Amino acid sequence: MGSVSLKIGDGTARFKRASVCSSAVNLMMFFSVITTNLFAFYAFTYHPTTVNQNPKNMAVISEKVSLILREIESSQKKLAQMEKEILGYESLDLSRPNISNELKEFLNPHQLPLGKDSRTGITEMVASVGHSCEKSVDLLSQFMSYKINGLCPDDWSLGQKLILQGCEPLPRRRCFAKTIPKVGLQPSPLSLWKNVSEKALSWSGLGCKNFACLNSKKLNRDCAGCFDILNGYENQRYVKARSKNDFLIDDVLAMGNGGIRIGFDIGGGSGTFGARMAERNVTIVTATLNIDAPFSEFIASRGLFPLYLSLDSRFPFYDNVFDLVHAANGLDIGGKPEKLEFLMFDTDRVLRAGGLFWLDNFYCSTDDKKRDLTRLIERFEYKKLKWIVGEKVNGPGKSEVYLSAVLQKPVRI
């Protein structure tokens, strides 16, 4: 049974495609119901003309009745499993007592009002939700517990926790998200380098409640003081190098021979890479989550495009659409090597032939990690336009190895 995504209104819904396979399953379900009920009807209504009270005969009859009851119970379990397979939720048990009604309502299929669509063969709408949500079904049910048509709970951190546990995409909700007045927003391009008011951001669920706190911390390897876009190093990034691993943005754009128009930034911090590109009329989509800071809102306040997405998800873009993909230490997702392979193959998928993959100061914590990443990149047969392996001294005075590269995707036929 296949599925297809269609754009309806302001969202994407998943639909189940009618097929020969689904029709066969429905016939099997119907036949199973009829058969078991006929057996049960026969067992409880049949009266022989000669009643034999022999205990042995009664034991045989009792055994047959028990067998029929067990068969009915088994058939009911098979029917429930078939229903889950038809719905596409083999692992989500909606009969559990702690499942919220809204979650059940969202996951249940809905018949199309005009019946089968003649062009696509679609008969019903089935909601899309991440299969790993089953592992966090209690949190998911909590996320779906709210007052319909009322204000949503201030639980974005709960939603993000589910996303980080693999429950992505999250189900839609029928409540109104909390709104915050966006005071002090500047028009573009002034917005690129003007701090927004702290009151225009949501600080709930975060340890820091202001920019001063954020800028005093190293939130990750790509964000140390990255919310200070006026006076800190963030204002000089990509236009002034501090080491040989720091490539200048104009130099990289020149490698694209004027063909860089749209790009994708993986783990883009506070959006500075997107801001520098915007100054050069290049549109950047920045993948981000609000890990310890309001990254998404801050990027949007600069007039840039944040994409609230974990790197465990398939990128929601068509093949070969970006002229450039920029990745720094957001590419270091940990886990087994296969996990990085899946991410790299998906990155390659959205990058067009002749496009540039900019690996920016990737921290090689071990020689094995540098070797594994190098071998992985070589499998894609990218042309190495620039490749620098350099050392930097961290705070305690320890030397660390970083890899920076600009690679060009080949044409594959």
Summarize the structure in words.
The chain is an alpha/beta fold and 413 residues long. It has helices at residues 20-45, 55-87, 101-107, 137-143, 156-164, 211-215, 249-255, 272-278, 295-301, 337-350, 367-379; strands at residues 3-8, 11-17, 110-111, 122-126, 218-220, 223-224, 262-266, 283-288, 305-308, 322-327, 351-364, 383-393, 399-408. Helix 1 runs antiparallel to helix 2 (55-87). The chain is elongated, with a radius of gyration of 29 Å. The chain starts with a strand and ends in a 5-residue tail after the last strand. Residues 1-22 have low confidence and may be disordered.
Q: Count of helical segments?
A: 11
Task: Provide the spatial order of strands within the biggest beta sheet.
Answer: 9-8-7-10-11-13-12
Question: In one word, what is the shape?
Answer: elongated
Sequence stretches where pLDDT stays below 50 over 5 or more residues: 1-22
Order of helices and strands: EEHHHEEHHHEEHEHEHEEHEHEE
Distance between the termini: 30 Å
Question: How would you classify the helix and strand content by structural class?
Answer: alpha/beta
**What is the rounded Rg?**
29 Å
Number of strands: 13
Helix proportion: 25-40%
Largest sheet: 7 strands, mixed
Q: What percentage of amino acids are in beta strands?
A: 15-25%
Q: What integer is the average pLDDT? A: 83
Per-chain topology:
Elements: E1 3-8, E2 11-17, H1 20-45, H2 55-87, H3 101-107, E3 110-111, E4 122-126, H4 137-143, H5 156-164, H6 211-215, E5 218-220, E6 223-224, H7 249-255, E7 262-266, H8 272-278, E8 283-288, H9 295-301, E9 305-308, E10 322-327, H10 337-350, E11 351-364, H11 367-379, E12 383-393, E13 399-408
